[in-house]
Amino acid sequence: MAEIKSTLDLIMEKTKSLILSDEEKQNIRQQEFTGKIRGWIQKYQDGLMDLSTMKSTMKEMNADEEILREIFLSEILNRIEPAMDNTRLLTLIAESFSADTGPVVHLLETFQTEWCNIQDKYRNDALKHLADNGISGSAVHPNLSEDEKLNLVLKQMKEEFHNKAIALHL
Questions:
Q1: Which of 11, 70, 77, 135 is the Cys-Cys partner for 130 at CB 3.0 to 4.6 Å?
Q2: Secondary structure class of 5 (helix, strand, coil)
């Protein structure tokens, strides 16, 4: 009787002559590094990994330091939430690669100042609109988190922030 082959056996048989190019191997290795680094950063943010453990784990990677640095900084900058406290991530940048976080801090301060000004404008406009419709008083507070236009502005500002942060090349 004929042997029934599994899907894996069929795939292995068809692909046994295929060989990865050096570029493909490098891309796969870079994806592996990226996945590991994302995990480390998440553990660090969650308080499950401290800075010294992260540094020693990075040294054990046996990877090109420049590639590791590039992936690491890119992943951290993508995690920075400009409207939140980013102290742990900035410390991670400064301590892991002795990078100057001043430009990122300046971008964050600029973002937060602009965001406060925009929120104030939207709040005042909403209060004026409500007052025009006979709704006013000290208990009236517009729910800005539900304003679609304001949320779109925030999204655009965050994208612009991340583009600027990545362009810094720390």
A1: 135
A2: coil
- Assess contact for 76 and 101: CB atoms under 8 A: no
Residues 140, 130 contacting (CB under 8 angstroms): yes
Note whether residue 114 is domain-resident.
yes
**How far is the C-alpha of 140 from the C-alpha of 134, rounded, in Å?**
11
Q: Which residues lie below 8 Å from residue 61, measured CB to CB, with a gap of 6+?
A: 33, 36, 68
Residue numbers of the domain that contains 67: 23-167
DSSP conformational letter for 166? H
pLDDT tens profile 100-113: 899 999 999 999 99
- Tally of domains in the chain: 1
**Contact status, residue 123 vs residue 142, Cβ threshold 8 Å:** yes
